[in-house]
## 1
Amino acid sequence: MDKKIIVGITGGSGAIYGVRLLEALNEAGVETHLIISEWGEKTIQMETSYTLPEVKKMAAVSYSVKNQAAAISSGSFRVDGMVIAPCSMKTLAGIATGLASDLIARAADVMLKERKKLILLTRESPLNLVHVRNMETVILAGAMVFPPVPAFYNQPKSIDDIVNHTVGRVLDQLDLDPDWVNRWGKQ
Ligand SMILES: Cc1cc2nc3c(=O)[nH]c(=O)nc-3n(C[C@H](O)[C@H](O)[C@H](O)COP(=O)(O)O)c2cc1C
């Protein structure tokens, strides 16, 4: 069976991470299930050159963030994991408290209860104690907090290089082993 991954795009800065992740998962033959929050839709429009229909078309299935009746709202739906890229502090807080008030927070809650991979590209700087405590809570519950912090050992020449490096490291976490990641010691 092909891998199935849920991708959430929320209103943290860096919508391009979610878009590039969708492209990379498609290239890797993964079946993608996409949820974009209301503010994720706004940041895609404000920060990228992609239209919403273009981004939604990249996914095998696209859900409304308000649709709590979607298949991915249930642990009975077979999926390999979920990545939220980027993950706002609001969505992080929703996961940490288990509120499940929209489909992104609910699907993430399901990942934790089913002991599936949940990778959060948390985006905020600087961090306050609430952010840090919420990160601690979700890590203790089984999530991976994966801030999209650029590396420079690969000598990035463009924003694309920076985004691709982080997305490649996320694919590593999903055991997809992309051959285009510029790894330390590979040069
Ligand atoms: C252009 C833009 C950039 C933003 N950047 C961030 C950010 O980096 N981190 C964050 O936590 N919130 C950021 N916000 C605020 C969130 O979008 C806001 O808290 C929203 O309610 C998050 O909701 P969501 O998690 O459902 O998408 C940003 C908002 C805008 C419009």
Note: The domain at 4-173 is CATH 3.40.50.1950 (Rossmann fold).
## 2
Amino acid sequence: MISMPRVNRILQHRSYEEFSDKNKQAEAERVYCRHGSDHGLAVARIAYIYLLEKYIEDRGSLSEAGTNNANIRLEESYGVGKESIYAAGILHDIGRWVEYESQEDHALAGARLARPILRDCGFTDAEIERIVIGISEHRLHPDKTSSILGQALALADDWARDCKSCPSKAACYKYTKAMEDILI
Ligand SMILES: [Fe+2]
Ligand SMILES: [Fe+2]
């Protein structure tokens, strides 16, 4: 198990709590998917699983000696370890409320708002750059991202939705029958 003290700091950060609350208020009447902390955590977990599976498919086993081996291998191969992947997932929609207020793309607003939170929580400059690029790319088609983290977030964002049991799917612009399949 790889502990994540910096991710736990994000969850306790005043700005994270404030922006999560603003998202909740802005989406109180929304009938489609909401973007609360549960969605952020689901995306974080699925993005991490996706990158672990991708590593195994691309390069073989992760299970050589050392408890932090998987983390080291992901860092070496994709430039992002477990904490960066989780931080990106948890923060990817943190700017959603900004889009409701000003129509600014929430991926770009989220990248901007995430930066000082990540700094406060002890992420390095290099880690912050990769995380904010991933956040800024999370709405792109997964084949169009420049970063592997952006691709993981874009895929996880769709896979995190329970479309099959959604009462609003008939009117949802995102819904397709294929989204009812569990892929990860
Ligand atoms: Fe989003
Ligand atoms: Fe999302």
Note: The pocket of fe (ii) ion (ligand 1) is lined by residues 93, 106, 138-139 (CB under 6 Å).
